[in-house]
Amino acid sequence: MRSGKVSGMTEVATARRSRITPEREAELYEAVLELLREVGYDALTMDAVAARTRSSKATLYRQWGGKPELVAKAVRHSKPGGSLGEIDTGSLRGDLHALTLRSDDCQMEQNSALMRGLAMAVHENPDLLKAFKEHLIEPELAEFRLLLSRAIDRGEVRADNPAAEFMMHMMIGAFAARTLLDEQPPTQDFLLSYIDAVVLPALCAPNPAT
Questions:
Q1: Among 33, 92, 184, 209, which one has the highest count of C-beta atoms within 10 angstroms of its own C-beta?
Q2: pLDDT digits (tens, 9 = 90+) for 50-78
Q3: Contacts for 93 with CB less than 8 Å, ≥ 6 apart
Q4: Residue 114, CA distances (Å) to 32, 44, 76, 170 in order
């Protein structure tokens, strides 16, 4: 009886968490991103989100548990639609170019600025770091590994190439370095050139022993 009761409570909780429609969820995420750009993570409160979205704070906590998960999921939602795993052009270069072209220059600039603003908060807040790893970092790592594994299967990349481990580091590094060194936002042209000049030569380098 007790296990049945617990199971019933779990079903009720799940039903309560799923009451928000996809349209309403997208609206809430956009409001969270707007507030992040306006005040930053530390000053963002669930009260402010509730007021901006005309929702109750209880609903926000019931659906997301707290600010870290809400912010992480909002940032994840702002990423271009679809999974990286759905990209399959037949070549690693084609896949990476297709990935880059999913965001226009305006979106890249907004996302770059948002992530710079969140960088310090992520490292200072263990709960936010945990939420980012769960909802952003680990899913994207898994999808990049899928792109890479297909390239290995096609013979484009050696399975023992040490650069393969740093594929995502190289891709993310381009975003950070563009603003830090050049004082300009990342753009499609910059990233496509970076992929061709840096990422592909590192990943597709021939075996030096041959």
A1: 92
A2: 999 999 999 999 999 999 999 999 999 88
A3: 195, 196, 200
A4: 11, 14, 12, 19
